[in-house]
Amino acid sequence: MAKYDYDLFVIGAGSGGVRASRLAAMAGARVAVAEEHRVGGTCVIRGCVPKKFMVYASEFSQQVKAARGFGWTVEAPTFDWPAFIESKDLEIARLSGIYVTNLQKAGAELLHGRATLVDAHTVAVGDQTYTADKILIATGGRPTVPTDLPGIEHAITSEEAFHLEKLPESILIVGGGYIAVEFAGIFAGLGSKVTLQYRGPNILRGFDDDVRVHLSSEMEKRGIRIALGCSHESIERAEDGRLISRLNNGMRFTTEQVMFATGREPHVKGLGLENAGVLLNDRGAIQVDEYSRTNVANIWAVGDVTDRINLTPVAIREGAAFAETEFKNNPTSFDHDHVATAVFSQPPIGTVGMGEAEARKRFGQIDVYRTTFRPMKVSFYGGEERTLMKLLVRADNQQVVGVHVVGPDAPEIIQMAAIAVKMGVTKPQWDSTCAVHPTAAEELVTMREKYMPAELGAVG
């Protein structure tokens, strides 16, 4: 008779949890997965997938403008928000169903309900308890809002933005990270009047400074107002139903919606971690080693709940590495270096490796190759949008340590560049690659002149 009900109990059926569950079950393990919401997690249900659908929808307004420049007669377009939301919800339901089917095909048992740790080998789901040899926590993250802000109850987060009954005529988006700039582009593209408010000196903290400046400029070209270096003091609802936001610099905005995109935190509350002795780090995330093991020998954690790199593909790779290690006798850890990322802003960003400031701090002398240009399509129809491309190269050994692209198709371009950077490509090897013409991407392999920022040039 088995000592435990399951070989593996997974808490959370998002990207990382589902991948680990499937692989473990396919390796012959008895697996249970508990999910309190819909299967698919943040990415599929309330994150990257529905957001990307919204990005696609919002880009058509720019495409209509381009079409006229190419000789097409296009009547004034209108956007049907309810029809889009209905189609989006149907597709999300289809994708969630695929996740469920894949779990079932692998032989994993799906349990619906909130799971709580009773001890290191016992999990409660509703009024039932289950025992497991190994437990994997993959509960993801959740939006954070300033709970002490007067009137915060009037604001929404990205999760509510996917289900608004109507497209707001105007919206104030609070934050300067991925989610904030992406939704600013989405709502602006769909026709809303958008203001982006961020407390810092510029958007996208942690990204290369040229990328930050370039995107900010391009967003303003698209009619997005950006208010920096300020924060909310209060939100109140006016008699006409609109929201009045008062900022600490005296500015005041009146909009139909206020959306907070001020960050996410690991979803650990109510998991019963203390019952099993699982430790958190100073960021409130579950503390793990390179193999995703917690301080408790039979408990692991993957994905956003560990706050390493909060990206869906990373959670998937962490989940796969866990299953490979624990159920296939093949110790595997995911390498978190040189992970490419995309921001689906408008224009989008693709980046891999270090930003310039980080590279200079780590390696000292850095060769910078940088260009901005209007893509031929944009030039043809008379647009003002510019693309930025930037390479960062170690001066001592010519290794490419950073690639940054802001412009159409940047996320598609960066995926291929990431392979080269991960393999340690050098600038001479990069330069030996023949360009594909005519493309925007060819600029990456034809940059030969080093770029010298004005402040460094003055010093030299």
UniProtKB/TrEMBL annotation:
Residues binding FAD are K52, D304
Q: How is the cofactor bound?
A: Binds 1 FAD per subunit.
Record's superkingdom?
A: Bacteria
Q: Which residues bind NAD(+)?
A: G175, G176, G177, Y178, I179, A180, V181, E182, G263
* Annotated catalysed reactions: 2 glutathione + NADP(+) = glutathione disulfide + NADPH + H(+)
Q: Name one GO molecular function term.
A: glutathione-disulfide reductase (NADPH) activity
The record places the active site at: H437
Cofactor needs: FAD
Pfam families the record matches:
Pyr_redox_2 (PF07992), Pyr_redox_dim (PF02852)
Boundaries of every Pyridine nucleotide-disulphide oxidoreductase dimerisation domain copy: 339-447
Q: Which UniProt keywords apply?
A: Disulfide bond, FAD, Flavoprotein, NAD, NADP, Nucleotide-binding, Oxidoreductase, Redox-active center
Q: Residues in domain FAD/NAD(P)-binding?
A: 6-319
- Give the enzyme's EC designation: 1.8.1.7
Cellular component per GO? cytosol
Q: What class of enzyme is it?
A: oxidoreductase
NCBIfam families reported for this sequence: gluta_reduc_2, PRK06116.1
* Recorded family membership: Belongs to the class-I pyridine nucleotide-disulfide oxidoreductase family.
What is the protein's quaternary organization?
Answer: Homodimer.
Protein name per Swiss-Prot or TrEMBL: Glutathione reductase
Q: Which organism is it from?
A: Caulobacter mirabilis
Q: What is the lineage of its organism?
A: Bacteria, Pseudomonadati, Pseudomonadota, Alphaproteobacteria, Caulobacterales
